[in-house]
Amino acid sequence: MTDETGPWLVVGLGNPGREYAGNRHNVGFMVADLLAGRVGARFGRHKRAVAEVAEGRLGFGGPKLVLAKPLTYMNLSGAPVAALAQFYKVPPGQVIAVHDELDIGYGQLRVKCGGGEGGHNGLRSMTKSLGTKEYVRVRFGIGRPPGRQDPADYVLSDFGAVERKELDFLVDRAADVVESVVVKGVEPTQNVYHAG
């Protein structure tokens, strides 16, 4: 269910704090920061939710975006997301979670609405707090850890030197995917971005 005139809540998932800023787990924050720059908005602390929020419009008179970075740490992201969805009256179908995805190769982007959480604690928390799985996910592939590295350590480590060469381009592309979902919808976006 969507509301044609209402805002979209775009949630970048990550962990607050400088020590986490370059982590694979924080790619959602990176995309949210880029989108804020695109719409000319600045993040500020929200009065009703433990999150930083930036508001703007896509293009002149375009759809309203509420960009959010929960400040509760990844595993507790759901409560601030639910509080913001209620505050801005955003239906679940217009909530977009941008997150890292172990099950997709580095640099691949996938979009879906609903489905499982694939062991991602940020998504699990969102599903619990929103009371539904029917929100949009923009999945940013980070690939599996090499050798026997623990996935928990892997997601909390910074992107490698080779990955960083492409990272800015990929974050930019992920922001394009978010904008496409808002303007065109999930299926048309899948048709364009899943081919590559």
From TrEMBL:
Reactions listed under catalytic activity: an N-acyl-L-alpha-aminoacyl-tRNA + H2O = an N-acyl-L-amino acid + a tRNA + H(+)
Major localization class: cytoplasm
Keyword tRNA-binding included in the entry's annotation: yes
Site feature (Stabilizes the basic form of H active site to accept a proton) residues: 100
GO molecular function, one term: peptidyl-tRNA hydrolase activity
Active-site annotation: 25 (proton acceptor)
Protein name: Peptidyl-tRNA hydrolase
Described purpose of this protein according to its UniProt entry: Hydrolyzes ribosome-free peptidyl-tRNAs (with 1 or more amino acids incorporated), which drop off the ribosome during protein synthesis, or as a result of ribosome stalling. Catalyzes the release of premature peptidyl moieties from peptidyl-tRNA molecules trapped in stalled 50S ribosomal subunits, and thus maintains levels of free tRNAs and 50S ribosomes.
Pfam families documented for this protein: Pept_tRNA_hydro (PF01195)
Organism annotation: Micromonospora vulcania
Keyword RNA-binding: yes
Homology family: Belongs to the PTH family.
Subunit structure: Monomer.
Sites marked Discriminates between blocked and unblocked aminoacyl-tRNA: 15
Subcellular location per the Swiss-Prot or TrEMBL entry: Cytoplasm
EC id: 3.1.1.29
Gene name, Swiss-Prot/TrEMBL: pth
Residues given in the record as tRNA binding sites: 20, 73, 75, 121
HAMAP family according to UniProt: Pept_tRNA_hydro_bact
Alphabetical UniProt keywords: Cytoplasm, Hydrolase, RNA-binding, tRNA-binding
InterPro entries per the UniProt record, alphabetical: Pept_tRNA_hydro (IPR001328), Pept_tRNA_hydro_CS (IPR018171), Pept_tRNA_hydro_sf (IPR036416)
